Amino acid sequence: MSTQPVPVTILTGFLGAGKTTLLNYILTEKHGHRIAVIENEFGEINIDAELVMGSDDEIFELTNGCVCCVATARADLLRILEKLLARRDKYDHILVETSGMADPTPVAQTFFVDPVAAQVSLDAIVTMVDAKHAGAGLQHEAVDQIVIADRIIMNKVDLVGARELEELEQRVRSLNATAPILRADHARVALENILGIGAFSAQRGTLSLDEHEHSHDPTLESRAFVYERPFERLAFESWVKAFLAEHGADVFRLKGIVAFRGEPRRHVLQAVHRMMDLKPADAWGAERPVSKLVFIGRNLDELALDAGLSGSVAK
Q: Between 45 and 237, where is the model more confident?
């Protein structure tokens, strides 16, 4: 049995954005992936009878190599995860769909909780946006879902004109300046663009730090930092934990690739509000170790953040 953490994708999006259509595609198509899908609410996923090979009460095995299960609350989600992790030879990726009205933050935080944290790795938060109806106004929940996203799927683009689509994408960009936007109709998107992407590309070193590329909602900020010298691990962890303890309510996401003195592997840092996760990734190899960090939230004092982080840099 593999000891590598199982990558997890959280799929979110407001009611009607197309999450169920995407999940039905994943659960019925012969795409070659082995994916465990957790529906984090009783929803409208249709699993045709002939697709179900067998089940152990809650987990259904499908002919295309996927498995599907339902969780109705966070405690349910943890219990389902434990069941899935006990049979991880059956799949190589977990996808969790959140309720359309839900803030995905609590679901994301679940994957930072022991004992689950050591066995899974948050790969990305993917948010679907309804291009046809979002133009009439983004609901508060939809705003939260867009802000926290690592990838944004602009769905139903076939139902809107080019100008309308461009205006909506500009509004989405004002909420999230760093997440790539993928256009789709009928929720059809290449799975390699949303699964196994390493959210901020920890494996590929291509974390986008251009927070000035687009305008921002005045209440939301994105602060990005690059450090050429490695950090002292204990000092870095101590500072991040203290910062989140004091300012976590304003931190929607913190994500980054971190180099530590004396350690040959890059580390992946993630935080959602006051919960953080720091895991080793692949080796730097011949690549020069460079740390890249992105903070997304409100009331982010760039000078104070830089001062705090710089204080943890190895001398």
A: 237
**Residue type at 285?**
G
* Residues 204-240: tens digit of each pLDDT: 444 444 443 333 445 677 888 999 999 999 999 999 9
Which pLDDT score is estimated for 63? 81
Phi, psi of 136 (to 5 degrees): -75, -10
Q: Is residue 28 a contact partner of residue 302, using CB atoms and an 8 Å limit?
A: no
Place of tokens 């687009």: 214
In sequence order, the 6+-apart residues with CB closer than 8 A to the CB of 174 are 214, 215, 216, 217
The answer to whether 200 touches 291, Cβ cutoff 8 Å, is no
Give the CA diameter of the chain.
63
Q: How far apart are CA 238 and CA 112, in angstroms?
A: 17
DSSP string, 2-63: --SPEEEEEEEE-TTSSHHHHHHHHHHS--S--EEEEESSS------GGGEEEESSS-EEET
Name the region of 286 (left: φ>0; alpha: ψ -120 to 50; beta: rest): alpha
Tell me the two tokens of residue 248.
């976590």
Residue located via tokens 């251009």: 210
Among residues 180, 194, 311, 205, the alpha carbon closest in space to that of 268 is found at 205
